[in-house]
Structure formats: C-alpha cells, structure tokens
Design brief:
single chain, alpha/beta, TIM Barrel, two-stranded parallel sheet, 15 helices, binds 6-O-phosphono-beta-D-glucopyranose
Length: 490
C-alpha cells in the first residue's frame, strides 16, 4: 500500500507559467510571422462587458484588417510585455523567487513564420537557445508547450487550419526542428495547450473561421482528431530524441457540479464534464473512449481517419496529464425553470451560490481543485501537473509605492492547500506552475489590466508605460512557499 504523505515531494516543480503570444513581443524587428492570436485587438472604447468575449468569434473581415500593414488598431499580443527584450531580467526575478520550473511556449511563428516553410528561422531558434541557457544557468527546468493558441495565421487563412490534414505535417516539422535543437535542455513537453478549447474557441485553437463551416461541430472534432494524431507524432519525435523526456497533454479543467441533486442535473453534469475529459481520455489512454460513438453521432459528426491513425495514437499516449484550473461551475438540465439562479455569463453555466467570483466573474473554488486532482488520478493513474492556476485582478500601486496583492495570495494559498490535501489522498502531483507569474496580456480579454503576476509590469491596456518590472507582495510570499516546499503558506 502506498504510504500516506502529508508534504509536497522533495523535488516538486514549483514555478510559474506564461505563453509566448502573451508575453514576448519582439515582432516588428524580427522574422516572426503573425499568429492567430496576433489578430485580436484591444479597443479602449469597447464597452467593459464585452471585453471577455473577444476571444470567441473571429471573422474574415477582422482577419483581413489585421493583415493590413496600415491598420491603425492596437494588437496587444504582438507586443506582449516585451519579454523578448527583458528575458534576462525576468528570469533573474523567477530565480530570485526560487522557481524550480518555468512553463513557457515556443512561438511556432518565430521558428516557421508562415508555418509551411521548409527551413526554420535561425534567428528564432537562437532566441530560445538564449532563454533555455538563461533558465538552466539558475537550475530552472523549462516545461515547454509546443502550441499555445499561436499557430501561424497563414495556416489558418491559406490551409483552413487544423481541419486540413496537411497541418499535421507542418506541426511535426516544427516539433522535430525544436526537439532536435533543444532535447538536451528540455525534458518536459506539452503538445497542445488546453486542447479541449477547440470546443469553445476554434479560431485560436484550430485556426478555424466559423463562417467557413456551416457544420461547425464537424470542423471542431475533425480538427481535434488531427491534433490527436499530431500529438502522438510529436510524442514519438520527443521520445526518439530523448527517451527520458516526459510528454504531457494539457486540458482546461473547469470543474462542474450539479446545480441540484435532480437526477437530470447530475446526468447533464456528467455529460458536460465529458466534453472536456474526452480530450485527456484520448491522449492519456491512446484511444477513443467507449462513449465517443454515441457522442459524435448525436452531433452528426463523422471523423475522417487514415488507417494508421489509431495505431500511432495507441503507440504514443502521453506520460503525464496536466491541466489549467481557475474555477468551477454549476450545471442545470433545465436552466429556464430556475427562478433564483444567476447565469454565469463567462462559462454559459449557472453561478454556484456558495462561491465568490473574481472581478471577471470566474467562480473561485479551491476545494474543486482537490476533486479534480482526485478525479484525474483515479481515471488515468498517471502523474499530474497543475500547469495553470491563478487570479486575474486589477492591481493598484499603494501610497507607499508597493502593491499589496493579498487577494492574490489568498487565492493561491487556498488552492495550494488543496493540492496538499490531494497529495495526502494519494494523488501523484509533481508540479505547480501558477499562471502569469509576471503580468502579461490576457488571453481572453486582451487586457493588460487583468493581472496575474508576482511581478508587476508598468504597462497599460494600450501598451503605454515604461515596462519597468516591480515585485508585488505575492512575490515574497511565493518565495517563502517555495523555500519551505509548501510547508509555510501564511
Ligand atoms: C488559460 C490559457 O485559458 O487561461 C492562458 O491557457 C490564459 O493562455 C489563462 O491567459 C488565463 O486566462 P485570461 O483570459 O484571464 O488571460
């Protein structure tokens, strides 16, 4: 029997997470191409209530305008927080906090600007050489996402995105190139960030413009199938380069609970949760789960597959399961009949009356994280990695010139406590990289003012500011958490 453990394992990977498209910048003066995330604008005149909606739909008109060099709109993800020029300073700050790991992504468009070139950009490869060398100088383990909402825009506009099987080859060429170059320095890889997000925002996940697809569910699941095959081929390439390397899947895990004990609510919750778990089921086990046939038939989806697809998926499942966890959500089978319930505009579910919400309406549920860790471990019996978790909040500089972000410390503390509980439950968790260890552009709202960092960056929603970095109160708190290996959370 496994012994009960009350502490974090001694080599636990504490750290922080970012994504290239939200942090780097370094666009105009480099060979980098436009990615799907680079077409989202931030407009100060957009009514506040629409800010979080920007991620969901993308039209041909918006894409065309974004490609026009004389567009006067502001595209925040082309600028990030200028990590491209600050990486040494930023990594030194991560090291000062005691990071054991740093989760980051490699921008596909920095290596292959359009995605279909035959040869990579040496300048782009050199940049990540520098970043990895800098991390390793401090003993920080890089954990690399190979695709984090940043496929080349050209593959979306010219090839139709992941619905087109050819994109598998372009992705594999990109992966093979970076794995050949970095396999001696990178041990942990994730093939696709939040792969289940294809369901909610197919443009950033798949490069699919919904206007082109009257049967959008068909496009989403066909694109997902191609990503499953691509993920297995990437795992093969990584293992061939370094058999010791570890590859993970990554899903967005929004924990769902029935709004009531009405059996219809319970069944609706099981089905809705499966919409996410479907993706980790395939990647962790290496085959489509038994419920797939009915699920796809009810959506009138028919997958086109090549004969070798199922074998490659079976041969190369992932080694570990990782996920982002920010919130939970309640599910009702009959929301129209509920008089007192409040709709959760962010998730499309129902607000849980027992939970508080962030300023962006994300419902805060630390105990849900313990449930999620137990569910995933019971289901897969594979090591787990908490790839993202954190609180997006507006930070104000106090009169003493400092940022007292106690609300962020509270959020993180309560979640870390629940990871510890899950470890005591017997769950194998080997790392925690909180989201947005340094302030950067929000993925969904494109704001800078939705901040997650331990490190403040002097920059506003329109990119104005000195870009000066400043330590928040949470910086010192997290430093203590890491130095005590999670024993001192106060
Ligand atoms: C996850 C993404 O969905 O949530 C990140 O993987 C993102 O890219 C994070 O930044 C937080 O979301 P947001 O919209 O608040 O930036």
């Amino acid at each position: 029997m496994k012994k009960r453990n009350h502490s974090f394992p001694k080599d636990f990977l504490w750290g922080g997470a970012t994504a290239a498209n939200q942090i780097e910048g370094g666009f105009e003066e480099t060979e980098k191409g436009l990615s799907v995330s680079d077409v989202y604008i931030f407009d100060e005149n957009t009514p506040k209530e629409n800010w979080t909606d920007q991620w969901h739909l993308m039209t041909h008109k918006q894409v065309e305008e974004a490609q026009n060099p004389s567009s006067t709109k502001y595209y925040p993800k082309r600028h990030g927080n200028d990590f491209y020029h600050h990486y040494k300073e930023d990594i030194a700050l991560f090291a000062e906090m005691g990071f054991k790991a740093y989760r980051m992504s490699i921008a596909w468009t920095r290596i292959f600007p359009n995605g279909d070139e035959l040869a990579p950009s040496e300048e782009g490869l050199q940049f990540y050489d520098n970043v990895f060398d800098e991390l390793l100088k401090y003993g920080i383990e890089p954990v690399v996402s190979l695709s984090h909402y940043e496929m080349p825009l050209y593959l979306a506009t010219e090839y139709g995105g992941w619905v087109n099987r050819k994109v598998i080859d372009f992705y594999v060429r990109f992966v093979t190139t970076v794995v050949d170059r970095y396999h001696d320095r990178v041990k942990y890889w994730m093939t696709f960030n939040e792969i289940n997000a294809v369901k909610h925002h197919p443009f950033v996940s798949l490069g699919v413009i919904e206007e082109n697809h009257p049967h959008i569910e068909q496009a989403k699941y066909q694109g997902a199938h191609h990503q499953f095959v691509a993920s297995a081929l990437a795992t093969k390439a990584i293992k061939e380069a370094n058999p010791e390397a570890k590859v993970g899947c990554m899903i967005s895990y929004q924990f769902l609970v029935p709004y009531s004990c009405d059996p219809d609510d319970v069944q609706a919750t099981t089905e809705k949760q499966r919409v996410s778990l479907f993706f980790s089921d395939v990647q962790a086990r290496g085959y489509y789960p038994a419920y797939t046939a009915r699920m796809l038939a009810e959506k009138n989806v028919t997958l086109e597959m090549e004969p070798e697809d199922e074998q490659i998926m079976k041969d190369y499942p992932v080694d570990f399961v990782s996920f982002s966890y920010y919130m939970s959500n309640a599910v009702s089978a009959h929301p129209e009949k509920l008089e007192d319930a409040v709709g959760n505009l962010v998730t499309g579910g129902i607000q849980n009356p027992y939970l508080p919400s962030s300023d962006w309406g994300w419902q805060i549920d630390p105990k849900g994280l313990r449930s999620v860790l137990n569910q995933l471990y019971d289901r897969y019996q594979k090591p787990l990695f908490v790839a993202e978790n954190g609180l997006g909040a507006v930070d104000e500089i106090g009169q003493d010139g400092k940022i007292h972000d106690d609300y962020r410390i509270d959020y993180l503390r309560e979640h870390i406590k629940q990871i510890k509980e899950a470890i005591a439950d017997g769950v194998d968790v080997f790392g925690y990289t909180s989201w947005g260890c340094i302030d950067m552009i929000s993925a969904s709202s494109n704001q800078m003012s939705k901040r997650y960092g331990y490190i403040y960056v002097d920059q506003d929603d329109m990119g104005r500011g000195t870009k000066k970095r400043m330590k928040k109160k949470s910086f010192y708190w997290y430093q203590k958490v890491i130095s005590t290996n999670g024993e001192d959370l106060e």
